[in-house]
Amino acid sequence: MIKDKHMPALQGMFPSWITSCSSDGEPNTTVISQIWYVDENHVALSFQFFNKTKKNISENPYAYATISDPSTLKQYNLELKFDHEETEGELFDEMDMKLQAIASMTGMTGIFKLRAADVYKVISISE
Amino acid sequence: MIPNLTINALEQGLGHFGVSSKNNKTVHVDTLGVKIDNIQSTLTCFVINSECKNVLQYLSESGRVSFFVGMISHEAYNFKGQFVSSEKLNNEDLNISENYRNNVIDVITSVGLSKDAALDKFGKVPDLGITFKVDKVYIQTPGPDAGKEITNSETK
What we know:
A: Pnp Oxidase, Chain A, 7-stranded antiparallel beta sheet, 2 helices, B: alpha+beta, Pnp Oxidase, Chain A, 34% strand
């Protein structure tokens, strides 16, 4: 599903967007700093705050996300379904280290804090 | 109901227009400028019609909108509301979009993105305006106020 051509868009060089929806039909669109490659069928999102996206996904596991290749701004749209969360391990540690680096570079140290790596199954990718 | 503190972000930020279907599936599309009507409390988001097949379908089903705008500085807001109409753009709309897109191209190339990529993305001229009535506005800037609703007393 995820191919080499998608990888530059999964490096966190350009923000990604995600739209989730509550169980009563209210959409929520927001920006996330990075969508992480896990394997060819899964990506991960950083869970930093108990925000609307997290609440919506707990009610309705489906989401729609867009990633951008930073060199071309070419976009890929991903249909996602929440699979599980990880609070320790290699994926969590890698995401935590990168998040702290981003926080440091953007003046957000102490605000960006990884609580979990939320892993999603990729249902489809389109351009 | 369009808070003054959000105007700068609406006029200059990157916008993403999200909707949900009757089955609570979601989709979004990038916007290329927005027209603000503070009297009617509406926003008209400029988009490219050919990119909006599912957006328009979902709007016809539920009509609920979440419109996110964010600045390079991380200042960001989320406008929730109800779909009103979609219409072709007039000259005033196109002028607003052109000014917006020129500014965005300047901003994103100033932070290192390629001019060609910026022109490819933001050089496109929108051909559709999607209008929705704003009923709630939330702060989305990362930090302690993220997710806080901007109430009527704070809109001035």
